[in-house]
Structures are given as C-alpha cells and as structure tokens.
Amino acid sequence: MGRTMRTPIIAGNWKLNNTISEAVALTTALKDLVADCTGVEIIVAPTFTALATVSDVIKGSNIRLAAQDVYWEESGAFTGEVSVPMLKDVGCDYVIIGHSERRQYFGETNESVNQKAKAVLSHDLQPIVCVGEQLEDREAGRTEEVINDHVTGGIAGLSAAQLLSGVIAYEPVWAIGTGKTATPAQAQEVHGYIRKLLKDAYSDEIASQIRIQYGGSVKPENAAELMAQPDVDGALVGGASLQAESFAQIVKNAL
Questions:
Q1: Active-site residue 171, yes or no?
Q2: Is residue 99 annotated as a catalytic residue, yes or no?
Q3: In 50, 72, 120, 132, which residue has its Cα 20 to 30 A from 92's Cα atom?
C-alpha cells in the first residue's frame, strides 16, 4: 500500500495554553480557515478544562477532538485524574499518550503508555502514541534503540486491528520547542524504521496501513517538505497550532 492510501493526519497539541474563551476564539477562526480542506484529518487537543466547549464549537465541522492525556482506570479514588469514558462523554475521538513532556516531567513510562493505549482502545477511541529520543540518545547513536523500546513497549499486546485504530507520533525530543527540526531525511529515516518494526511485529500489510506523524517544531515553512517524505503521514504540531493561520497553513500543506 502506498502513501496515497494513508489519510494525512494533522493534530494541534495546545499543551498548557488557552483559557476557555481563548480556545473558542482559536477554534472558531480555525474552523473557517480549514472548512474546505478534504482528504486530511484535522485534530485539536485543548486542555481538559476547554474540551467540552471546543467540542461544541467544532460540532458539524471537519475538526476532531483529542485530549492530551488520560488515566487508564474508569473511575475510583484517583484524585485529579480523567478517565476514557469521561473523554468519550465530552466528544473526544483521539487521546495523545506518552508525549515526551509527560515522560520527562510526570513519570510516564512505556508501561503506563501501554495501559493507557489499551484503555483508550477498549472504548473505541484512538490513541496517538508518542515515541522519540533525547538529544543525548541521538548523539550517542542510540536513536533506534530508544525508538524500538518506546514502540514495542507502548504497543505491547495490541492486536493488529487495535494497532490500526491508533496513530504513532515520532517526536525527536531535541526538536520540540527548540526551533530545531529534524531534517526531512532524518524524519524519514526514523519513520521508515518504525514501519519496519511494525512489519516485523505484525505484517507488511499492517505496517503499510498505520499512520505515523512527525512532531517537533513543525511550522508552515517546513511542513510540506516533511510530509512529502514517503513514511511521514502528518504532523503533531505544538506552538504553531496556537495560531489559527499557521495551523491552517500546515493542514493545507498536507493536501
């Protein structure tokens, strides 16, 4: 299956930004700018507090909703956590799991990523499973070792059908918010390696269908070149998703 058979997927991870009123303004502007964009999946990931409101704003549009994290238990004595049924209730289709900032600051591990992915899939939502190496890993030549660890640990025990329900996002940590971007060739090399891992773990057919996003200082200026790579199926966008015009331009560059 060629790249043309995989629908590009552009997700805006707002991180810890935007009050509810700011979220409404951003989403309303974005909705108009991308209304005519077809053949690409468009996702926004607000903070928990803005999910319900943004869900209302995008109703009937071509924008879908993601959460930035989730807990794997459905309910109980877990103060401060949000469950998959709660995210489903608010209108989420996707959940970002294992973002490098969750790993770096909040103790996320391959095991917790795997538990979260299984919980998300059990309620028919779609996980965006993030993988990526730190600068010291890349400089020490350990990129493939880290990616192998993150991918195999994150998707352990998933059936082929479950795997295909999700998305993998490759984010070189050294390129997130630093202004550094992996070159298109560097991105393609790791995306190709991830697809090879999935081919070995599942099959060529499954590996050719899974979508792999690139995340790491994606901007309108570099998005088209990155997404022109044969194994790059979209972008997980951080800072540039906080401006409707720049995010819309990235979406259009995926067409």
A1: yes
A2: yes
A3: 132
Taking phi over 0 as left and psi of -120 to 50 as alpha, with beta for the rest, 251 belongs to alpha
Catalytic residue among 41, 101, 171, 191, which? 171
Q: Give the bridge partners for 65, in sequence order.
A: 44
Quick check: 40 and 7 in contact, CB under 8 A?
yes
Active-site residue, from 41, 99, 108, 133: 99
Q: Are 42 and 128 in contact (CB under 8 A)?
A: no
Cβ distance 190 to 147 under 8 Å? yes
- 190, 153 in Cβ contact below 8 A? no
| Residue 84: other Cβ atoms inside 10 A | 25
Q: How far apart are CA 10 and CA 219, in angstroms?
A: 12
Q: What is the pLDDT of residues 53-101, one digit of tens each?
A: 999 999 999 999 999 999 999 999 999 999 999 999 999 999 999 999 9
Residue 255: both structure tokens together:
């067409």
Give the Cα separation of 58 and 62 in Å (integer). 8
HSE on the CB side for 68, CA within 13 Å? Answer: 19
Pairing mode of beta strands 234-237, 126-131: unpaired
Residue that has been written with the tokens 């082929």 in this structure? 160
Chain CA centroid to CA 12, Å: 8
The helix or strand, by DSSP H or E, that contains position 211, with its residue range, turns out to be: strand 211-215
pLDDT digits (tens, 9 = 90+) for 218-227: 999 999 999 9
Structure tokens at 165: 């329900």
